[in-house]
Write a structure and sequence with these properties.
This protein is an alpha/beta fold. The chain has three domains: 2-201, Rossmann fold, CATH 3.40.50.720; 211-297, N-(1-d-carboxylethyl)-l-norvaline Dehydrogenase, domain 2, CATH 1.10.1040.10; 300-436, Rossmann fold, CATH 3.40.50.720. It contains 18 helices and 14 strands. The chain has helices at residues 10-21, 33-40, 51-60, 70-76, 97-109, 126-141, 161-166, 178-188, 203-234, 238-246, 267-282, 287-299, 302-311, 338-348, 361-367, 380-383, 404-410, 425-430; strands at 2-6, 25-29, 64-67, 79-82, 114-118, 147-151, 171-174, 198-201, 319-323, 352-356, 374-376, 389-392, 415-418, 434-436. It has a six-stranded parallel beta sheet with strand order 3-2-1-4-5-6, sandwiched between helices. Helix 6 links the parallel strand 5 (114-118) and strand 6. Helix 1 (10-21) crosses helix 3 (51-60), helix 5 runs parallel beside helix 6 (126-141) and helix 9 crosses helix 11. The structure holds nicotinamide-adenine-dinucleotide and uridine-5'-diphosphate-xylopyranose. Residues 154-158, 214, 217, 221, 255-257, 259, 262-264, 266-267, 327-328 line the site of uridine-5'-diphosphate-xylopyranose.
Length: 440
């Protein structure tokens, strides 16, 4: 099949590359010439394990191409994936300008039947808006070319994106016409395993399914974060509680890790957008989700608050080593990363910070350009120099079994604030550390 993917970010680049990997001819379009240049030069603009090799292999095989040429992209694919960003607007709703622009560009230049696939996370009703935008552009051209609009939300996780796309646990397709459903079945046939993973439903249900999934996962995390704060006060250990409840198959072990708040480009914005859609489009106040968001906003201050409780609310003259900047391990993505709040909390209290992250430092420098009081170290060990304490924000593997003797020797006081519960409290405290984790 010939496929166009519009938007070559985390989702577009992974989707396009995986679709090429199974034999399709794929053209990835982006309006950002810098991204397309990097890709044409053989690099990739993001960090995602395994992606660089896969891109190279498919470019070499002549199945994967990159362009900024909107007209060429609209002609190319019989299937047109829209995978552009839907960032939060000022009021929390999803900003639909990129999706609308992508749809209009398809309508402006398409020739022949197209299946237009909404892969971006979009509010219920977007497929109708995309259909209307394309129809309007066709009308302006005085042509009556047929097309279908399908909702096919993406569930990949950054850091595990290739595996998630190549071996999906479900493929949600929202579709109101048979021709498009057949096309989607054929397209996803190579990604089926053991049993049929494709769940066909109406378009609106598919659009809502994506928000429901992220909202449910965010809810589990905020719930565990609240229980962790409670466990801490009551002298219980949230890790034991997690294992205790996760063993119930009705609950399950996944996404029950307490921490310093969830971040990333999806949970925070999708929870906000769902709250907003419910209020504006349906007049419904989503009380549970409002609480999930509030709890998460507070949880992002939990490390800052613990540090102030230990060292005093005026942190002037104090210096902290910060391990981990990305919103989670195995990505360079800094969107809504908890580290941003921790850094702000520490700097605004007068402290200075030296941060280290295996891959997200370049992104962090874009978030904090020339921030007084914030510096970066080349290694995790170097970050510890002259620090009063170590603060861990991201669960990178290389932070999991450090040389504690070196940490102790370098820190002015042997204090570790662990926002990811990486270590066994007994073990670390036994080595003479003051160990302040989450809910333990
Ligand atoms: P991103 O910001 O990494 O990439 C979006 C890309 O679209 C950018 O490169 C931008 O230049 C490009 N773009 C914008 N307007 C364009 C246009 N008119 N034509 C061509 N290109 C255009 O975004 P992302 O993280 O890949 O997310 C994309 C969508 O997928 C969002 O709706 C997001 O919620 C959803 N999603 C993201 C993830 C994730 O893990 N990042 C997972 C599932 C779903
Ligand atoms: C998420 C969804 O998992 C994915 O299905 C969707 O397509 C996009 O949004 P992503 O944002 O890449 O993926 O990361 P995810 O692994 O879900 O983590 C999101 C945030 O929750 C991170 O900050 C992570 O550290 C945090 N988290 C996750 C916890 O605090 N505890 C957990 O148990 C799991």
């Amino acid at each position: 099949m010939k496929i166009t993917v519009i938007g070559t970010g985390y989702v577009g680049l992974v989707s396009g590359t995986c679709l090429a990997e199974v034999g399709n001819e794929v053209l990835c379009l982006d309006v950002d010439p810098a991204k397309i240049k990097i890709l044409k030069d053989g690099g990739i603009p993001i960090y995602e394990p395994g992606l660089q090799d896969m891109v190279k292999r498919n470019v070499a095989a002549g199945r994967l191409h990159f362009t900024t040429d909107i007209k060429r992209a609209a002609h190319f694919g019989s299937v047109q994936f829209i995978a552009v960003g839907t960032p939060p607007d000022e009021d929390g709703s999803a900003d639909m300008q990129y999706v609308t622009a992508a749809a209009r560009n398809i309508g402006r230049y398409m020739t022949g039947y197209k299946v237009v696939v909404d892969k971006s996370t979009v509010p219920v009703g977007t497929a109708d808006a995309v259909r209307a935008a394309i129809a309007e552009e066709l009308q302006k051209r005085g042509v009556n070319t047929p097309f279908s609009v399908v909702s096919n939300p993406e569930f990949l996780k950054e850091g595990a994106a290739i595996d998630d796309f190549m071996k999906p646990d479900r493929i949600v397709v929202g579709c109101d016409d048979e021709q498009a459903a057949l096309n989607m079945r054929a397209l996803y046939a190579p990604f089926q395993r053991n049993h049929d993973r494709l769940i066909l439903m109406d378009v609106r249900s598919a659009e809502l399914t994506k928000y429901a999934a992220n909202a449910m996962l965010a809810t589990r995390i905020s719930f565990m974060n609240e229980l962790a704060n409670l466990a801490e006060k009551l002298g219980a250990d949230i890790e034991s509680v997690r294992r205790g409840i996760g063993s119930d198959p009705r609950i399950g072990y996944d996404f029950l890790y307490a921490g310093a708040g969830y971040g990333g480009s999806c949970f925070p914005k999708d929870v906000k957008a769902l709250i907003k859609t419910a209020a504006v489009d349906a007049g419904i106040d989503l009380k549970v989700l409002n609480a999930v968001e509030l709890a998460n906003d507070q949880q992002k201050h939990v490390l800052g608050n613990k540090i102030k409780a230990r060292f005093g609310s005026d942190l002037s003259g104090k210096h902290f080593a910060l391990w981990g900047l990305a919103f989670k391990a195995n990505t360079d993505d800094m969107r809504e990363a908890t580290s941003r709040q921790v850094i702000k909390d520490l700097l605004s209290a007068g402290a200075s910070v030296t941060a280290y992250d295996p891959v997200a430092m370049a992104e962090a420098m874009l978030c904090f350009p020339n921030e007084p009081g914030l510096s970066y170290a080349d290694t995790q060990g170097e970050a510890l120099n002259n620090a009063d304490a170590l603060v861990i924000v991201t669960e990178w593997k290389e932070f999991r079994s450090p040389d504690f003797e070196i940490i102790k020797a370098k820190l002015k006081s042997p204090v570790i604030f662990d926002g990811r519960n990486l270590y066994d409290p007994k073990l670390v405290r036994g080595m003479g550390f003051e160990y302040l984790a989450i809910g333990r």
